[in-house]
C-alpha cells in the first residue's frame, strides 16, 4: 500500500523522467510547424518554452497569434523568445499555402471559447479558419488541453473548479467532438515530446512509385521501419507482397490521383 511519502516520491521521479525526456535532442530540422495561439494565460509560459525548444531542435516555426493572444504575450516578447519564427498576425493571400505546407498544426494555448467554436464549425477569426482548414486537409493537429479543461489544476487554484457537472460535461463534449475531428490533446508540458512523436510517425509512411509492389519491396520498407506504404492506383500489388505486408503488420494504401 502506498503512503503519502511513496506517492510524493513517485511524483518527483515521474517529473525527473519527464524533464530528462524533454532535454533529449530531437531532430526536427525537416519539419514545418504552425503554432496557433488563442488568448489564454493557462499554460502560456510552458507553451513558449516548448516552442523555443522546437526551434532549438531545428523546426521551421510559423506562429499565428489571435488578437487577444498578441495582447497578452506581446509582439516583442514573441520575437525575443522565438527569434527564428515567422509571425503572422492577420489574413494574407499566402496563409492558405502556409497551412498546406505545415507538417503539423499546434494549439499551444487553446481557450474554451476557441474549443467550442471549432466544435461548432465557427470560423470568424484567423485561428479558427486555420483550424477549419487543418481539419479539411487532414492535417496532423495537436492542442494543449490545459487552458480549456475545467478540471485543470491551475483553474482549481484560481477557485474556478466549482462548475456544475452539466457545464463540465458540455465542455468535455467539445473535447470529444474535436477528437472526432482527429485533433489530438496533451498536457502543455508534453507538447514537444508529443509533437516529435506525431511527426516521427509520419516518417513511417512512404510512397512506392514503382509500377509493381513486390514482397522484396515490402521487406526493404519493413527494415526501414515503414508502417504504411502508399501505392499508386495504377500499380500492381503481387499476392506475395500482400502476404508479406500482413505478416509484418504493414498497411497498404492506394493513393488517389
TrEMBL record:
Which residues does the UniProt record annotate as the domain Flavoprotein? 33-135
* Superkingdom of origin organism: Bacteria
Molecular function terms, GO-annotated: catalytic activity
- InterPro entries of this UniProt entry? Flavin_trans-like, Flavoprotein
A Pfam entry, by short name: Flavoprotein
Q: What name appears for this protein in its UniProt entry?
A: Flavoprotein domain-containing protein
Amino acid at each position: 500500500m502506498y503512503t503519502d511519502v511513496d506517492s510524493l516520491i513517485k511524483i518527483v521521479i515521474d517529473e525527473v523522467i519527464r524533464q530528462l525526456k524533454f532535454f533529449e535532442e530531437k531532430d526536427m530540422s525537416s519539419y514545418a510547424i504552425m503554432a496557433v495561439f488563442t488568448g489564454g494565460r493557462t499554460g502560456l509560459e510552458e507553451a513558449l518554452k516548448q516552442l523555443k525548444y522546437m526551434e532549438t531542435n531545428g523546426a521551421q516555426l510559423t506562429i499565428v497569434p489571435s488578437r487577444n493572444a498578441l495582447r497578452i504575450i506581446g509582439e516583442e516578447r514573441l520575437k525575443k523568445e522565438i527569434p527564428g519564427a515567422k509571425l503572422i498576425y492577420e489574413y494574407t493571400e499566402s496563409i492558405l499555402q502556409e497551412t498546406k505546407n505545415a507538417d503539423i498544426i499546434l494549439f499551444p494555448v487553446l481557450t474554451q471559447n476557441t474549443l467550442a467554436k471549432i466544435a461548432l464549425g465557427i470560423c470568424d477569426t484567423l485561428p479558427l479558419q486555420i483550424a477549419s482548414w487543418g481539419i479539411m486537409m487532414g492535417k496532423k493537429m495537436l492542442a494543449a488541453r490545459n487552458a480549456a479543461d475545467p478540471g485543470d489544476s491551475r483553474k482549481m487554484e484560481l477557485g474556478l473548479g466549482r462548475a456544475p457537472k452539466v457545464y463540465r460535461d458540455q465542455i468535455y463534449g467539445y473535447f470529444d467532438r474535436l477528437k472526432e475531428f482527429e485533433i489530438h490533446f496533451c498536457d502543455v508540458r508534453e507538447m514537444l515530446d508529443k509533437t516529435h512523436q506525431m511527426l516521427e510517425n509520419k516518417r513511417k509512411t512512404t510512397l512506392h512509385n514503382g509500377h509493381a509492389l513486390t514482397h522484396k519491396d515490402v521487406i526493404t520498407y519493413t527494415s526501414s521501419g515503414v508502417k504504411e506504404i502508399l501505392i499508386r492506383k495504377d500499380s500492381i500489388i503481387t499476392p506475395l507482397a500482400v502476404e508479406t505486408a500482413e505478416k509484418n503488420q504493414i498497411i497498404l494504401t492506394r493513393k488517389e490521383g
